[in-house]
Fold each of these.
Amino acid sequence: MVDLILKKGKERSLLRRHPWIYDTAVQKLTGTPSLGETVRVLSKEGRFLAWAAYSKDSALRARCWSFDETERIDRSWFESKICKALRAREPLRTRTEAIRVIFGEADQLPGLVVDRYGDWLVTQFQAAGVEAWREEIADILMQETGVKGIFDRSDAATRHREGLQERVEVLRGQEPPAEIEIQEDGIRYGIDVRKGHKTGFYIDQRDNRLLAQKLAAAFKQRHGRGMRALNCFCYTGGFSLALLAGGAEEVISVDSSAEALAMAQRNAQRNGFAPERSRWVQADVFEYLRQARDAGESFDLVILDPPKFASSHKHIDRAARAYKDINLNGLRLVKEGGDLLTFSCSGAMDVDLFQKVVAGAVIDSRREAWMIARLGAGADHPLMMTCPEGEYLKGLQLALR
Ligand code: SAH
């Protein structure tokens, strides 16, 4: 067993059970651990701190498995963590077939993402530690879930930082179909686990899709007609379908990707929505919003769910300007009495900054807006309180008064 000894004072974050150890905190190692090998982490004074997975090339030099000296990091340890994660997601299964069953640090399995789509699992091994235990993890997942197969989508660029190659392949069982169909809150979605974003679907927006559906239904009840809505960055139509299911009269969905729009249209057909209720527009949202305003368009609800504009703190200023731009131009299209649902999935931008940026857009738009709710990811993406870096998706529901 190799010991990883920290520099003086660098044990503080571990004593608060934060699971990351940066290269700059490491004083020395008593041997040369292999990639992903479990090491014993000690303070400079020799106090036991954690069991961690070592990653020799990464700035995140080690990620902690456990802070309990009596635990052994072996197959049965992984079994217990995986079973605990699966059990915690059980209640969601009455609502949906798309569930993040393992969410890395939150499930004490740093760097591991496992998403379930009906009878299939899709994995992402994003750190050397979980990669070293890949076969055991795959066996346990097969045994505990009874799925038809596991598809590995370990193609995130972050793997290079961990000294790992990208890998996309069937990990266990059968080859998944080209499109897996799942149901969520009564709506059907097709998911391409090979080429889709993340593992194929924005599972994290589940509760916000349901909110959109409810807003559309409430509007119809109040006004006796369906709303007119704009869904920007629609991808495969998650929010668009929710709005149509809620009774929206017309939904305009905008995305720059022809592939995503094609899948979104197939998804609308899958649910039997009349084609004249939706319009699918391939365009750059920044330009589309300006053109729509020039054309005098207005909507009862506008949704903005862009890709991550800030990949790190370095890009935060540029990202803030981009968020401000779409929020300002999005707000201008909302009818008096209408709503805006606006999101940011940039982990580098915290909720306070996001709210400030959106408030800036409200001021510049010369509109009056109430914040009705702060929004976030669903219950299958919990935040480990000791690791705030896990928080990334945030949203605001604004009502224009
Ligand atoms: N709202 C979606 C997820 C959005 S992902 C959902 O709930 O499923 C971000 C999407 O923005 C991607 O589909 C990507 O193709 C699209 N995109 C990125 N930059 C864009 C731009 N400038 N204009 C339009 N679409 C863009």
Amino acid sequence: MPVKKALKFPDGFLWGAAISAYQVEGGIDNCDWARDEKMPKAGRACEHYRFYDKDFALAHSLGQNAHRLSLEWSRLEPEEGQFNHLALEHYQQVLSALHARHLEPFVTLWHFTLPQWLAVQEGWQNPKSVDYFCSYVEFVVSNLKGRVKFWLTLNEPEVYLLNGYIKPKWPPFKKSLFSAWQAKRNLIKAHQQAYLIIKKIQPSAQVSLPINFSWFSPRNKYSPIDWWMARLALWANGIFLRPNKKCMDFLAINYYTRRMVSIFTGFRNEFGMTNEQLTDMGWEIYPKGIYQILRRLKKYHLPVYITENGLADQSDKKRWPYIRDHLIWLHQAIEKGIDVRGYFYWSLMDNFEWADGFDPCFGLIEINYRTMERFIRPSAWQYAKTCQSNQLLR
Ligand code: FCB
């Protein structure tokens, strides 16, 4: 869709980028990902734990007014029931540094990594995980409530179940539908109870749970089976939304791609596509999907924040067109009456992309992992123009 005129975003719109602790901080060695021999190691990552202020200064210079980050549970509670006040102070300073740069924090309480003491007790499969999570949340929120308004409880639990229990290619590597079901039940309870705890400690807080929505299309549009499978996949996207809808103050949507669905080949996204249409991860670039997802979610009548959207693109040639085209469709959704209030690009900087290690380059900022130097990519300056002007210019 070509841009015809400047597209103005609503006043007060939040513009930012997202990161998560294990992917950028460095020096996290007490969690399941760091301990599992099968996984690549994040090691020093981007040394963001040390350079956070420098990174926030860059985000600010790029015109951003919000920032999504996560707290590392294994730093804050290194042993069961023992909270680390030095780690807490660190995050207090991180949040103060964000405020000093006028960046509104969106804080994720759990982004895929579990403290080792919980991982060895079966992690989210263990019903006690709900209480453990709640006591961690209580500690964190009572101490950080003055610095955070937007809380995100559990990042993409459905992606975690898929990768940890069904495929499985992430810890805990348990190929079992029953275990996945147990973990799912506990994750839902954990969100609901955490929601109540946060609201009790901080009634003005805004709380949600980020969900990864892909768009699904039938590979063969004349095949009723493919069509039904695509509908089913879209429905399955909502497994953490439907039971939690009364415990969400806004929708937190992570959108990346579309998958083609076929009875013969399952869920894929590279059928007959040219390289131009794919990211370095092989994910289809399908900007309209963000609009199609938001139209489906309109019935929830909740404000929406896009808490992740982005691509791996080492060349940086596709990044700005990707962001621009998603913003055009996002604007279209706003015009159709959907109350979208913010957008976070994934990610502020290159980082540790889970099982794929350090190869994929998602960052607005490039990292030299040897020297830890930061380099702003050209696409970041393009995005900055939108952040600064609150509009998408022609
Ligand atoms: C999302 C994750 C995030 C990052 C991006 C590429 O599913 O939340 O940590 O890995 O994908």
